[in-house]
Amino acid sequence: MPKLTLSQLERHLFAAADILRGKMDAAEYQEYIFGMLFLKRASDVFEAQRAHILREQRVDYGRSEADALKRADSPAFYQEAFFVPERARWAYLRDDLHHNVADGLNIALGELEHANPALNGVLDHIDFTRQVGKQARLTDTTLRKLILHFNQVRLRDEDFEFPDMLGAAYEYLVKFFADSAGKKGGEFYTPRDVVRLMVRLIQPREGQRIYDPCVGSGGMLILAREYIQLTGGNSRNVRLYGQDNNGSVWAMCKMNLLLHGIRDADIALGDTLAAPFHKEADGELMHFDRVITNPPFSQNYDRAEMQFPARFRYGFAPEQGKKADLMFLQHMLAVLNPGGVLATVMPHGVLFRGGAEQEIRAGVLADDLLEAVIGLPPNLFYGTGIPACILVLRAPERPGVSGKPEARRGKVLFINADAEFRAGRAQNFLLPEHVEKIVATYEAFHDVPGYARVATVEELRANDCNLNIRRYADNAPPPEAHDVRAHLLGGVPAAEVAAAEGECAAIGLVLSTLFVPRPDTGDRRPGAGSGQPSSGLGPDETFDFAPTLAVRADLKPHIEGDAGVQVERARLQQLFSQWWAAHAALLEKLPGADTGLLFARRQLLESFELLLGESAWLDRYQIRGVIAAWWGEIEYDLRTLDAQGSFLALVDSWIAGLRAALEEGNGRSGNGDDPLAHPLVEHLLPGYLERLEALAAREAELKAQLAEGAGSGGAGDGELDEDEGEALSPEERKALRQQLNAARAALKALEREFLTRLEAARTELSEDAAREIVLAIERERLEAELDRRAAACVQAVVARVENWWDKYRVSLRELEAAREQAEATLAGYVEELGYGG
């Protein structure tokens, strides 16, 4: 059977939520979706394992049917799958549970948990009989709809196009519920772009212990493990630990880990500050190689309740006033192995508040533990709109010896990335290029003007341990230049033009094509007054715009069409083509490759930066951002390619996604993304979209002719009353209607044939042809990403020149003269009307 794609599975889960949406808030029904998903997944995997056991017992061991069934129904035979009791099996829920469905589902969850010790506490918080608002509980009808909906898709590993796809879909659900929950979503969900950034900062490796003391939904542990896998490590050779004090969040985390296939993670329930759970056999606190977390901001704590007070070697922050942030930090430091690394999200207040918190910072700096302070944009997190930061710290290698690399000892890197984001409707988010810039700067550990600075610990201590990021890395843009003389007399100042020459030269633009020297008016500088164009460019020189630039709208086409710009654009394209020819083989070799995806990503990124750095169009971070953004767009395609080992399998995945979108009504007239816009369509059905657009245009043209001929502006659909309008004769209207109906019929027929034509074209593809198509599509996507960045560079120059036009094109004297002329004209009108005097 065809593999299930991630987009299909996400749509399936979203449609399940649709069954309950409107009856209650997302925060109320999320547990029902999670519970039903877990029941279906556990049952599907169990049934596959049960069939395997029965076959093995009958064929390999020659046992009777009764003996085979006895073993297949024994929990002892299920080591890699959960044992599912009969009343929790999907066939029973689907076929036999028609009345008191909520009670039956609760029984199923209870029996499943009871039969599997690993599930203790994970499912018992889900209560299908719980009263929701004024409604007693979900009706049998609604729950049956939910059961029948989940019955549509089988959830075995072999059904997915790449491993851990169910986990990725569960993450989609978790994010959906976090979005719906708003501020409460911050209790369990950290945006995944932030988590991926933090994981890359700490670089977990196989064989390590990784710990999240405020684990939430478990995303940080999951992505840390994923990072190990994508870098070519053995993700099974890692130990994951976490703790959370919210029971429902703890259960969500456990379920998240289980659906990602992680059964051995040690996740505890309880208050980490008061009573850390993870201990060694001798009762001492367990230590970890990596710690990564987003603790709750600005909480109070009770010192009297705290176990292991030696954790807080640098002091205690005030118990009240919501200042427990540095207490969490000290706990993390206390449980780091020698040389271990931690990354944590913190509010900015911990960087500069005085009193006990200042003393804690002083102790951390004195022991040279702090490696980096990274300022993040505002409104990234669900729990708060205020900006936050990431702190990166390293435990000492041994007492008195810093755990930092030699070159970083006694230094702290400050990165001010608070302007690196894309604004969203409800929240801001980091793009792959923003993450890439932060990671590259952290790894290089050097100054970047207006972005990052390396400060010495001595400097920080001299500043009273104030770690305010802007104090060391101020990214505030310089004030916009305004030349008073130019405002008064007109002309673009030479100093401003000279300051932009580097930016313009990078795209091949010679500014002399935009300007001519401005004639000296005789009153700008002492000794001037010849009235002739100036020779040389003194500090007070100004330029006029070239005579060919008569209006502001002329600037953009002039710059975009400039010969020098076109030459540099062509050179950039040539460098790209050269790079692709040399490195596309990395993608060709992905199926069956032994190296991880992130290894291929790093090679592509570094080679891209090396070669395209020869062009001055983009700086190194923008160049890396091109690859990072492209990779983020195609990552799941590459996972499918890597897992299936076939380019044809990826083409099949794309076609399955198109089919699902069209079947769900997300066609060209729907509200969703246009499925036909997928680049595969043009490659498999060349010219199809042009024919479709031509027919759509013809339909629109005929409708417009009928509406115009009706004389009323109505009847946009072409359905007119016989007595409406006289612009067209009845015969002409009849002929137009016939043509319109024919165009509509041809359009609908072509749309209906789409999937048939697409699948027919697919059957003719060989693996080699599929490889060529996939590589061509991925190249087009990358080239489009590069073109967008190059276009943005040109638009930045256009905006600068347009700003000069707005500021200096019309001088104050010209405005005064125009005002005087207007006043004189008005006075003449008044005089003519007899109101003068």
Outline the fold blueprint.
Layout: H1 6-20, H2 26-60, H3 65-72, H4 90-95, H5 101-115, H6 140-150, H7 165-181, H8 192-202, E1 209-212, H9 219-230, E2 239-244, H10 247-259, E3 266-269, E4 288-293, H11 325-334, E5 336-347, H12 349-352, H13 356-366, E6 370-375, E7 388-394, E8 411-416, E9 422-423, E10 428-429, H14 432-444, E11 452-456, H15 457-462, H16 469-472, H17 484-489, E12 492-493, H18 494-499, H19 501-506, E13 515-517, E14 542-545, H20 555-560, H21 563-583, H22 585-588, H23 597-612, H24 620-644, H25 647-663, H26 679-684, H27 688-710, H28 730-752, H29 754-763, H30 767-808, H31 812-832
Helix pairs in contact: 1-2, 1-6, 1-7, 2-3, 2-7, 7-10, 8-9, 8-14, 14-24, 21-23, 23-24, 24-25, 24-30, 25-29, 25-30, 27-28
Short structural description:
By secondary structure, this protein is of the alpha/beta class. It is 51% helix and 8% strand. The strands form three sheets. It has a nine-stranded mixed β-sheet with strand order 3-2-1-4-5-7-6-8-11. It has a three-stranded antiparallel β-sheet with strand order 12-14-13. A two-stranded antiparallel ribbon has the order 9-10.
